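Methods — Computational structure assignment.
A single polypeptide chain was analysed. Its primary sequence is given first, followed by the predicted tertiary structure written as structure tokens.
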Amino acid sequence: SYIITILNDEGKYKEALELCQNAEKLFIKAKASPKNFAIVYNNLGNEWQYLGSFKNASKYYFKGLKISGKLNNCVFESTFINNLSSLYAKMLDKKNQL
């Protein structure tokens, strides 16, 4: 996550996306915890959002939201809800944004 922040600050969104995609593959191999998957899905959603692919971003935000609901983790849930709301705002879809 720290390297991703640095790459984003430098505008290297594609490199950050590749790093997140590699992390997801490693997590699958390692059978990582649901909490780790929620984090990687948030990061993937962010990178897709930075690159302007709202469809891909929402796919990962919804995956993370589903996991966070099962974890009963209010912080994660609110993060995903907020990120989805920001996507709808950019699409000027106020109904779904709320």
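Note: The chain is about 85% helix and 0% strand.
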